[in-house]
Amino acid sequence: MYDGTRVVDSDGHLLEPADVFDGRVDPRHLERAPRIVRTPDGRQAMSFLGNPPSSGQFGSGDAVTPGGLREPKLRDWDDAQPGGFDPHARIADMDGEGIDAAVLFPTLGLFSPLIPEPEAAIAVCRALNDNAAEYCRPYPERLYPVAILPLKDVNASVAELQRCAGLGFKAACLRPNPDPFTGITVDDPSLEPLWSAAEEAALPVTFHEGVNPLLPFAGLDRCHSMFDWHVVSHPFEQMLAMLNLVSSGVMERHPNLRFGFMESNCGWLPYWLQRMDSNWRNLAWQVPEVKRPPSEYFARQCAITCEADEAAVPAVAALAGGDAIMWSSDYPHYDAEFPGVVKELFERDDLTDGLRAAVAAANADRFFGLT
Question: Which parts of the chain fold into alpha helices (H)?
């Protein structure tokens, strides 16, 4: 609680240990998996697609420590924010902030689409989900895991979603990007069994971007640095995922399936809903499965996250509804504001008490089914 108000972090992250795959995954599946390995000089760095790792301008641990990229210190992965690895340390950090509960997304798991082979992707995702369940197990009323799915095999994704739902996971997570090998996007008809399974399990499907130029994202050809990638990829890919889910009729066919659009800020939402609505009024004949204005689908079954300092929150609430905005910290990644982020949210003078309570917890509680 913070000043008597419940607080839920709708999008935090856990950090997988560098040895997370040891004893969990057949070594033959790990050659091109996203993982932490040692560089020739002994540093820990990320490796993707089997490429040699490099520390570059910052350490792997800098990227997963709050504020770690403002003045990089070449931290190793193991030296990142302790609460990312240790649930007890995380609870201590949450208590210090006044956070009652946190919905936790993977970190390495966000790059699982970079695994070319379906069998390897299945093994890696299952191992990461097992690790997430173990991390959250000591605090079942406060830490809630989100499942990453091996989308290259839809039947395996359905099976993993059902397994994780049975383990108490509160959502499933997909990348909004096109698959780098198959080109499959979220509106592909092959994913229909997954939407049906998620709807039947009452498990929200969330979309979460991650910075990596090896995964295609809109505007990549005009981005030249991590600054560019991070500015562009998160909102652009979420906007496209939302559009694709609406225009292909996924939301029409699955009215009880909830969709979350994570870590992309929320200021773009009113514009995007209004633009989709205006085009639907003139071109509805081109999208016959869309039976109502796109904004109505969002209002019926979607949610979006915001950060504590986003000036646009009151305007978004006024234009798109205040019951779909959920506060998130991104802890312990580099752009997380920690400590002091909850205080920042509660010291704002432009939020009504009702909107603050909704954004701080009530919307996330309802969307994820936490209470």
Answer: 82-85, 87-97, 118-136, 154-166, 192-201, 226-247, 250-253, 269-283, 294-301, 313-320, 341-346, 353-357, 363-368
Do residues 102 and 144 lie in contact, with contact meaning Cβ atoms separated by under 8 Å? yes
pLDDT computed for residue 52 by the predictor: 86
DSSP string, 155-173: HHHHHHHHHHHHTT--EEE
Distance CA 112, CA 258 (A): 23
* 101: enclosing H helix or E strand: strand 101-105
Taking alpha carbons only, the member of 292, 293, 290, 352 closest to residue 325 is 352
Q: Which two tokens stand for residue 286?
A: 């081109």
3-state secondary structure of 299: helix
| Assigned CATH for 8-368 | 3.20.20.140
pTM: 0.97
Question: Taking CA 15 as the corner, what is the angle to CA 9 and CA 17, rounded to the nearest 5 degrees?
Answer: 155
Which residue ranges make up each domain of the chain? 8-368
pLDDT of 329 reads 98
Specify whether the CB–CB gap between 340 and 5 falls below 8 A. Answer: no
Question: Cα–Cα distance between 279 and 283 in angstroms, integer?
Answer: 6
